[in-house]
Specification:
Helix content is 35%, strand content 26%. It has 309 residues and is α+β, with helices and mostly antiparallel strands. The chain folds into two domains: 2-252, Glutamine Phosphoribosylpyrophosphate, subunit 1, domain 1 (4-Layer Sandwich); 258-299, no CATH class. The longest helix is centred in the middle third of the chain and has 21 residues, at 181-201.
């Protein structure tokens, strides 16, 4: 599926954000599209963390590219920049051909914190000469880096530059604990809504007003150090159990393991009678025992997989 999209990443001294619209489009003129895309992958490594999003191809066969990135890094424990280089290499082998046949390129952008410093990374699959992974460093320690991608980037550059500068100022306020991560997420969602509306007015129907936003604060002293939101076409937060940002940590498939544990928990909960009492809840063995956890761990795929299915 071709996916022209709108994606934006923010990187600051202590935290990172990524926002992407949710539309997957066969072709711009076609009504056949889906607003169920999740175009962000969370990559955790021994030396850092990145939120990787993209513009170009959104899905090949039944595999969304965010999930494909997750699978290519599964079972591979590398540094952050080596992991991003691996994404470029796998993209050359498996993704670039699909992009060319769709008549588009494919660009990854990522907000990241590595070795205590914050960066934005750009990976263009059409770029063959080194470096394939471009690291953009902040001018100062407190500077907030912003990157945008997709057909919506042209709209944002033309009409929304002041709003993006304001986002940078808001992130600095977040670092002073004056505003919340949720407020910044809502501003990113509002930017996506506006870009989608302006693009549609110009005849570009490839950007949904719905969006996904993820935040990570690896230096936070509280856990969990980050949050995730889905927003509707008005920029209001909604619940969507299908919207899961794939997370791989030092090659470990966090998302698959979590999904299997949750499936086991739901199976156990279904054994409870309707309207169970507190005593029945207390007696129920809802949490998996050690043997079940070992079985789940053994069943989780832990090797790289570059194939689209």
């Amino acid at each position: 599926m071709r996916d022209m999209t709108f994606a934006v990443v923010l990187s600051s001294r202590t935290a990172i954000w990524a926002c992407a619209d949710r539309q997957l489009t066969v072709r711009q003129s076609a009504p056949h599209s889906s607003k169920a895309g999740v175009k962000i992958t969370c990559i955790e490594t021994s030396d850092g963390m990145a939120l990787l999003t993209y513009a170009g191809i959104g899905r090949v066969h039944d595999t969304q590219v965010s999930r494909w990135v997750y699978r290519t890094l599964r079972g591979i424990n590398m540094s952050l920049e080596r992991s991003l280089e691996h994404v470029w290499s796998a993209g050359q082998r498996r993704l670039l051909g699909h992009a060319r046949r769709a008549g588009t390129g494919h660009l990854f952008i990522a907000s990241a914190i590595r070795d205590g410093k914050h960066y934005v990374y750009v990976i263009d699959l059409l770029k063959q000469d080194a470096p394939q992974v471009i690291r953009i460093e902040p001018r100062t320690r407190t500077n907030v880096k912003i990157a945008i991608a997709g057909s919506g980037a042209l709209v944002a550059q033309r009409y929304e530059t002041s709003r993006m500068r304001q986002l940078g100022r808001l992130v600095r306020q977040y670092e002073r604990a004056n505003i919340s991560a949720a407020f910044i997420a809502s501003q990113l969602a509002a930017l996506n809504v506006t870009v989608s509306k302006r693009a549609r007015e110009a005849g570009d129907n490839t950007i949904s007003a719905e969006s996904v936003v993820i935040h990570r604060h690896p230096k936070s002293k509280t856990r969990p150090a980050g949050r995730f939101w889905c927003f509707d076409d008005a920029g209001k937060p909604i619940n969507d159990s299908e919207a899961v940002v794939p997370t791989v940590a030092c090659g470990f498939p966090v998302t698959d393991l979590g999904a299997m544990i949750m499936a086991d928990l739901l199976r156990r909960m279904r054994t409870l009678p309707p309207n169970p009492t507190a005593e029945q809840f207390a007696k129920a063995e809802l949490m998996p025992d050690d043997a079940t956890l070992r079985a789940i761990g053994n069943a989780v795929p832990d090797t790289p997989d570059e194939q689209f299915r």
